[in-house]
Amino acid sequence: MDALIIVFVTGLISMFIAMAKKPVLVLATAMIGLSSALALMINQWWTGTGFIQLNYEGLLFDKPSILYSSLAISFVLLIIAGGYSYFKQEVEHTGEYISLLIFSLVGAMCMIAFTDLFMFFLGLEILSIPIYVMVGSKKRDILSTEASLKYFFTGSLATGILLFGTAWVYGATGSFKINEISAAILDGSAKGALLNVGILIMMAAFLFKVGAAPFHFWSPDVYGGAPTIVTGFMAAVVKLAGLFAFLKLFTFTFWGAYPLWSGALFGIIILTVIVGNLSALAQTRFKRMLAFSSIANAGYALIAIMNQSNWSTWNLWMYIYGYGFAIIALIIISLLVNDENDSIEGFRGVGRKNPFIGFVLTVSLLSLAGVPPLAGFFGKYMVFAAAFKQYPVLVITAIATSGIGMVYYLRFFMTAMAKEENESTVEKLKPSILQTIVLLICAIALLIGGYIAY
Amino acid sequence: MSLETITTILGGLTIGAALMVVISRHPVRSVLYLVLTFFLISSNYILMNAQFLAVVNIIVYAGAIMVLFLFVLMLLNLDKDSEPKTHILVKIASVVAGGILFTVLIAALKDGIALGEAAAASAQNNEGLVQNLGQLLFSKYVLPFEVSSVLFIASMVGAVLLAKREKQVID
Amino acid sequence: MNSTGIDYLPIVLQIGVIGGFVAFVLFITHYLGPRLKSKKKDSNWECGIESEGNARFPVSVRYFMTAILFVLFDVEVIFFYPYAVNFKALQLEGLLAVILFVAFFLIGFFYVLKKGALEWEK
User: Fold this and answer.
1) What residue spans define the domains of chain A?
2) Which of A264, B27, B103, B161 is deepest in the core (most CB within 10 A)?
3) Identity of the residue in A93, A126, A193 whose CB atom sits nearest the CB atom of B161
4) Residues 6+ apart with CB under 8 A from A226
5) Which tens digits make up the pLDDT trace of A267-325?
């Protein structure tokens, strides 16, 4: 709880400190605030209690929530540090960019630690609304505006549908608290069409938010139009919060209705991994490729939601860990390359120009592709292994499609590592110290991910 | 007139007004029908003993948000008929999909009728009154209440970021 | 506490008074004030310049900014209703909750003012 308050206050302060027109101050505030929040989270993990104990209903930072919240805070820290060069371009708005991202993190943390559906819904809204704005924050870029509008319309429709579903579930179970809902479903007092319809409607809205296949059409346009750093935020933090809330709500709360939703989810996962990977193959733009790859990755992550065990929380965490750090590294490299058309060809020769960036790029791409010693492999392995007994078909499809995934990751890798034909056209890449640190952290996180897994 | 008759009439009027929102060709007329719909929904809320919702619905939705809607309409160019033509297949598909969803919802609601009667009989439905709701809001649910201010601040920042004009630099 | 139809009687009365007043004023204006009628006054007469362009032009986004901030503060006001009714019963705890809430809003308001979003720039 104390970490949440710190994060919120950090957002407030960075909103006001920006009026001094010194972007460095905003960055420093955000860094200090988020780091202390992270420290508080770690403290709470070890001691079991936070410094502030508030006994109000709605939020509970138990161990899984702490785990996911810490990961979310770390992602936001890296994104803000890595994107600082972008944020400071418009001094007028630096504070707004950073504080909106931090407010969004507040929403993500509410969405992670919720114990009743009120808090969950508030968290979802606090997460989404700053992102709608941030997607459109490049006001002079018409694509960014288009993306923002698209995301807003479709996203608010999904939110409305989610609320509608929540109302049905409430009608069937008579409670908003997730443990009461879970109990009501398990003891059979809430069986019936009301509950089933409610759960299915909620699932549709959730699948929209995480971008699974039949509900994914917004994703490429929004990812492509958004400012690069916001794309990274959406891929890492929004996915993290959405998937964990999905896990908490479905795998744990709606477990009693498992036969109902698992069948639908089964089909959707298969569709998602196929559509995501096949569409990513055809992309020539980096951010669109990333969008489709994130769709495919959401599909893999959903497999963790399909089977309930004490480990599925941990498996999903490991999966998002590998995915998030790799995406952040890629996004920052793409920020450095700064190709106008955002084409994959723009990355040609990046690895040769700056060996360090080449190294980080290699690590993150291989991790995304799922090559053994890296974190991405362990995430995939744990998720697949846990589900294999129950759903062999699902896992085999997932493995086959991740083979397709390897093709475009490696193609991208080859482009980035290729020899440049005309040396003079592109200047040397110069990451700032901050970006170097961020890239280094991402690479280290991906390299040691396997050890964390054990 | 019994309560049931009033409910039926109000419900019919609400659905009719809501339909007119969709059917009306002129956007401003749609918005005005939407205002009417909100008032009718509010009266439904009052019948369900949910005073607070009724008040919120009128003040925020019928008042403030409809003003915003009208502003948005005036922001747009309404000169030309710019409604995009949709393919006939798309229309058929959406009718089928909507119809199926509607059927499922209606079928599921049949369960709900029995459940609703049981709930109405067992519990005194008084949470919707302003007083009772306030007691809950400021004691049990005070945390969501405070957290909602984060949402408001974030949307204020967002509104300022998006809608404020950039200072034009004149060289 | 339960609500019955009789609780809404004041509201119904008020609506009746408002409606009655409007109708009354509309009715009475026809009889108040002098009426002058002459051939010249009743004849058609047009003057002025020809109108140009369409009357439906896009409104400036500045109105929108004000309107959207109005909605936010309107929502804030809504939360005072349940508090006002329970003012005594909630005691200090409720007061603190409301003060905190209003403080957040004031911070937001201060921010909006500082940014000059409510200034009517030219």
Assistant:
1) 1-135, 136-453
2) B161
3) A93
4) A134, A135, A144, A147, A148, A234, A287
5) 999 999 999 898 888 888 888 888 999 999 999 999 988 877 778 888 899 999 999 99
Distance, in angstroms, between A103 CA and closest chain C CA?
13
pLDDT at A124: 93
Is B76 an 8 Å CB contact of chain A?
A: no
Domain assignment present for B2:
yes
Domain ranges of chain C: 59-122
Q: Which chains touch C (3 or more CB pairs under 8 A)?
A: A, B
CATH number at residue B30: 1.20.120.1200
Do residues C63 and B165 touch, judged by C-beta distance below 8 A?
Answer: no
A41-60 pLDDT, tens digit per residue, is 888 888 877 777 666 777 88
Q: Is the pLDDT of residue B123 over 60?
A: no
The pair of three-digit structure tokens given for residue B139, joined into one six-digit string: 């004691």
Neighbours of chain B (3+ CB pairs under 8 A): A, C
pLDDT digits (tens, 9 = 90+) for B134-163: 888 888 888 888 899 999 999 999 988 888
pLDDT single digits (tens) C46-93: 777 777 766 666 667 777 788 888 888 888 888 888 888 888 888 888
- Phi and psi for A343 in degrees, rounded to 5? -85, 155
Conformational region of residue A117, where left means phi above 0, alpha means psi within -120 to 50, and beta covers everything else = alpha
Question: Residue A429 contacts by C-beta under 8 Å, 6 or more apart in sequence?
Answer: A336, A337, A350, A353, A354, A357
**Using one digit for the tens of pLDDT, what is the confidence trace for C19-32?**
999 999 999 988 88
A400-451 pLDDT, tens digit per residue, is 888 888 888 888 888 888 776 655 445 566 778 888 888 888 888 888 877 7
Closest residue of chain B to A5, computed from CA coordinates:
B147
Please name the member of C71, C82, C117 whose beta carbon is closest to the beta carbon of B160: C117
Both tokens of A281, joined, read 């193959």
Do the domain assignments include residue B68? yes
- Of C65, C75, C94, nearest to B164 by CB-CB distance is C65
Query: Which residues neighbour C88 within 8 Å (Cβ) at sequence distance 6 or greater?
Result: none
Q: Sign of the CA dihedral A171, A176, A180, A181?
A: positive
A154 neighbors A131 (Cβ within 8 angstroms): no
Average pLDDT, chain B: 82
DSSP letters, A258-275, are: HHHHHHHHHHHHHHHHHH
**How far does C10 lie from chain A, in Å, by closest CA?**
33
For position B121, what pLDDT does the model report?
54
Are the beta carbons of A56 and A305 closer than 8 angstroms?
Answer: no
Q: What is the pLDDT of residues A58-67, one digit of tens each?
A: 788 888 899 9
Q: What angle do CA A329, A330, A332 make, to 5 degrees?
A: 65
- Report chain C residues whose CB lies below 8 A from the CB of A16: 111, 114
Tally the domains of chain B. 1
Q: Which chain B residues contact residue A193 at CB under 8 A?
A: 107-108, 110-112
Domain that holds residue B35: 1-78
Q: What is the full DSSP assignment across B20-63?
A: HHHH-SSHHHHHHHHHHHHHHHHHHHHHTT-HHHHHHIIIIIII
Tell me what pLDDT residue A412 has: 87
What gap in Å lies between CA B32 and CA B39, rounded to an integer?
11
- The answer to whether the Cα torsion of A262, A263, A265, A270 is positive or negative is positive
CB contact under 8 A, A129 and B157: no
